[in-house]
């Protein structure tokens, strides 16, 4: 018989019933074996510790990858569109201050609205902004102002790389509309009802050689302007802003698809006999400071909102003063205005200061009627044509004298120089300046 003290129970007897190991012993041995196995596995894994681990990724989805790239492109395009909208909002009131415009996000030519694509289908391009512009204005000025803002010389950076988001393009169409394209895609369209025929020729390159004829001192009466408008080739009206028939003369130019300039009176030098020419009321003087210059200029531009630019009436003293010309030109940027230096004196600084201010500018090649004689004026026209052939283009300036009108009616250029509207030369010069990092210029 066993006693309690010597009887071994199942928890104390190293062998269980039947002589086998107890449960606790088996559990301990199993744990020991597990530790030994883990230690052995760690020894095997140790040589691999220095090797980098390759991440496990799912196979790429080509359609999703394309969608991500397109989404990124859409984001950049949307940002560029926002910036373009801001530029347009700034340019419109400066270039076309007397016009009215309406923004349309769709138009009849766009067709029905396209539903948003589902799934991974790429979204459609957004409809371009379409502006309808009416009222008195010079549409060319908006084109020039926009082109200058996107020129190579402007410090305007667009989202992304140049390859993905190139500089916006500004161009005229054969339908007479102005367009902005971004990366080849149409972004903005500006239409000018009733002016399409006059603007359509801006879509064509400037012919070479090209001759531009400007007639100064218009606005006193309509008689001379009507005679000039009846010529078989285009001339540009340079109109005194304070003259009695200024508005009617500018309206006539628009009706006949002719361009007009603001003929800006400026202070002249006294003549050799001591006589001091009087250029007219509110002429610009050398001693004027910026506020006075701005006040006169704003009133004159308000009187002729359809002018594509300005040239000087008299002004031998003013244009010979570089500081005065610089002050004037500092008031002109962002308006899209062209500056023609009439060169009433050899040392004129007007064109040079206009270029320095980033404006589109040129100088006249010669006066047609310093001698009021039909034969002499015809010879001057021939000389202007020769200059155009030599330099690619020329601007000749005349006056509404009866002799000048007779010479213009009879003159024929036998060498085939194209007499073109001033707007075609301006747009050509603006395009050339846009491609040059140095800014505006007057060369072909």
Mean pLDDT: 82
Cα radius of gyration in angstroms: 39 Å
Question: Helix count, per DSSP?
Answer: 13
- Please write the string of helix (H) and strand (E) elements: HHEEHEEEHEHEHEHEHHEHEEHEHEH
Domain module count: 2
* Main pleated sheet: 9 strands, parallel
In short:
This protein is an alpha/beta fold.
3D architecture notes:
α2 (62-95) packs across α3 and α11 (374-391) crosses α12 (402-410). The strands form two sheets. Strands 6, 7, 8, 9, 10, 11, 12, 13 and 14 form a nine-stranded parallel beta sheet that branches. A five-stranded mixed beta sheet has the order 1-2-5-4-3. The chain is an alpha/beta fold. 37% of the residues lie in helices and 16% in strands. The protein starts with 22 loop residues before the first helix and ends in a 9-residue tail after the last helix. The model is unreliable at 1-19, 41-72, 107-124 and 155-163 (pLDDT under 50). The protein has 13 helices and 14 strands. α7 links the parallel β8 (260-266) and β9 (309-314). The chain has helices at residues 23-45, 62-95, 139-149, 196-200, 222-229, 246-255, 290-303, 316-319, 322-329, 350-356, 374-391, 402-410, 422-435; strands at 100-104, 129-134, 169-172, 178-182, 185-191, 210-218, 236-239, 260-266, 309-314, 338-341, 360-363, 366-367, 393-398, 418-419. The protein folds into two domains: 76-109 and 125-198, Beta Polymerase, domain 2, CATH 3.30.460; 205-435, Glycoside hydrolase/deacetylase (TIM Barrel, Alpha-Beta Barrel).
């Amino acid at each position: 018989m066993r006693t309690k003290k010597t009887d071994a129970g199942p928890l104390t007897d190293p062998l269980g019933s039947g002589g086998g190991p107890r449960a606790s012993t088996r559990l301990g041995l199993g744990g020991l074996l597990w530790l030994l196995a883990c230690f052995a596995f760690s020894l095997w894994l140790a040589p691999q510790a220095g090797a980098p681990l390759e991440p496990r990724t799912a196979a790429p989805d080509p359609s999703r990858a394309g969608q991500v790239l397109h989404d990124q492109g859409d984001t950049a395009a949307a940002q560029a569109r926002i910036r373009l909208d801001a530029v347009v909002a700034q340019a419109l009131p400066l270039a076309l201050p007397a016009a009215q415009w309406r923004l349309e996000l769709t138009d009849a030519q766009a067709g029905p609205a396209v539903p948003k694509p589902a799934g991974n289908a790429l979204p459609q391009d957004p409809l371009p902004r379409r502006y309808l512009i009416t009222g008195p204005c010079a549409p060319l000025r908006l084109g020039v102002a926009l082109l200058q803002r996107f020129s190579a010389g402007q410090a305007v950076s667009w989202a992304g790389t140049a390859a993905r988001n190139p500089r916006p393009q500004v161009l005229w169409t054969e339908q007479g509309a102005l367009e902005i394209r971004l990366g080849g895609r149409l972004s903005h369209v500006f239409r000018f009802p009733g002016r399409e025929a006059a603007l359509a020729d801006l879509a064509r390159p400037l012919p070479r050689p090209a001759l531009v004829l400007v007639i100064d001192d218009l606005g006193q009466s309509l008689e001379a302007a009507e005679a000039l408008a009846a010529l078989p080739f285009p001339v540009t009206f340079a109109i005194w802003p304070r003259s009695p028939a200024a508005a009617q003369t500018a309206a006539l130019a628009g009706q006949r698809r002719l361009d007009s300039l603001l003929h800006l009176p400026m202070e002249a030098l006294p003549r050799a006999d001591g006589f001091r020419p009087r250029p007219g009321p509110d002429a610009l003087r050398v001693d004027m400071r910026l506020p006075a210059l701005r006040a006169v200029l704003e009133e004159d531009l308000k009187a002729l909102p359809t002018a594509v630019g300005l040239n000087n009436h008299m002004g031998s003293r003013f244009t010979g003063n570089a500081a005065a010309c610089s002050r004037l030109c500092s008031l002109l940027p962002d308006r899209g205005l062209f500056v023609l230096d009439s060169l009433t004196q050899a040392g004129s600084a007007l064109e040079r200061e206009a270029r320095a201010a980033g404006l589109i500018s040129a100088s006249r090649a010669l006066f047609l009627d310093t001698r009021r004689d039909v034969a002499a004026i015809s010879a001057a026209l021939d000389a202007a044509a020769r200059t155009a052939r030599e330099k690619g283009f020329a601007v000749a300036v005349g006056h509404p004298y009866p002799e000048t009108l007779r010479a213009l009616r009879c003159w024929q250029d036998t060498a085939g120089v194209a007499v073109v509207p001033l707007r075609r030369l301006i747009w050509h010069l603006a395009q050339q300046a846009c491609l040059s990092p140095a800014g505006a210029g007057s060369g072909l």
